[in-house]
């Protein structure tokens, strides 16, 4: 991917500039596709519930981390209903400020709002049952993604999971000049996960999204 991202600094700063101009709304978070939010959340919930149960080898429901959280759409609809506490991390301060009101009463169970790019973020060791990374890996270079996933692994509790949910391209790496990101094909994502020392324990495609957008896949990693 090095040849696609020629200048790492501007790759990140252009993305930050792009998101600063995006309205802090559900529609803004979903690039104008606010209408798919319910389908997205329901697909994620069905996926996540396969792992979170009491009992041997199951993932706990104590604390989750929402990566690239924006205004907290996923925290509000998916994570707070399933976990006792949630932390949010996002590079855009305005989104995190908005999250405080958007999350409403349940927002009291959010312990931390981290304003930080994922390339620099270090999850606290052994803190999280689930680290949820949705629609944000395209904003990381390959090396930074691998390093971030390694740090995530250290941030997990026993039986914890890292979950990636993201667009996948049909082939190779497709750059997006508008928001300064890339879309990788599934094989490349799998390879980067492997490089990070994680294995995919379950993988599914999100169904019922509009035909004109990228396919979206969910990968559960340990």
TrEMBL record:
CDD domains with a match to the protein in the record: AdoMet_MTases
Residues bound to S-adenosyl-L-methionine: 68, 73, 90-92, 118-119, 134
Subcellular location, principal: nucleus
A GO MF term: N-terminal protein N-methyltransferase activity
UniProt cross-references to Pfam families, sorted A to Z: Methyltransf_PK
SUPFAM superfamilies: S-adenosyl-L-methionine-dependent methyltransferases
Domain of life: Eukaryota
Assigned GO CC terms: cytoplasm; nucleus
Official protein name in the record: protein N-terminal methyltransferase
């Amino acid at each position: 991917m090095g040849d696609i991202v020629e200048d790492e600094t501007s790759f990140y700063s252009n993305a930050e500039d792009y998101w600063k101009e995006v309205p802090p709304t559900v529609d803004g978070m979903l690039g104008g596709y606010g209408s798919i939010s319910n389908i997205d959340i329901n697909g994620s919930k069905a996926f996540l519930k396969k792992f979170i149960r009491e009992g041997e080898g199951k993932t706990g429901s104590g604390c989750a981390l929402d990566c690239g959280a924006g205004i907290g759409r996923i925290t509000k609809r998916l994570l707070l209903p399933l976990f006792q506490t949630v932390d949010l991390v996002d590079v855009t301060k305005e989104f995190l400020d908005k999250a405080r009101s958007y999350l409403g009463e349940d927002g009291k169970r959010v312990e931390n709002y981290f304003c930080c790019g994922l390339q620099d973020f270090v999850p606290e060791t052994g803190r999280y049952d689930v680290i949820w990374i949705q629609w944000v890996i395209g904003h990381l270079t390959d090396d930074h993604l691998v390093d971030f996933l390694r740090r995530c692994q250290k941030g997990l509790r026993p039986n914890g999971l890292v979950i990636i949910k993201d667009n996948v391209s049909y082939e190779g790496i497709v750059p997006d000049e508008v928001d300064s990101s890339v879309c990788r094909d599934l094989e490349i994502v799998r390879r980067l996960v492997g490089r990070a020392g994680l294995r995919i324990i379950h993988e599914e495609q999100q169904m019922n999204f509009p035909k004109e957008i990228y396919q979206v896949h969910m990968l559960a990693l340990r």
